[in-house]
Amino acid sequence: MDASIVKTLLEGHMSDCEFHVEGEGSHYDIQAIGDVFEGLRPVKKQQLVYAALSDHIADGSIHAVNIRTYTPSEWQSQSQD
Question: Is 72 in a helix, a strand, or coil?
Answer without folding.
Answer: helix
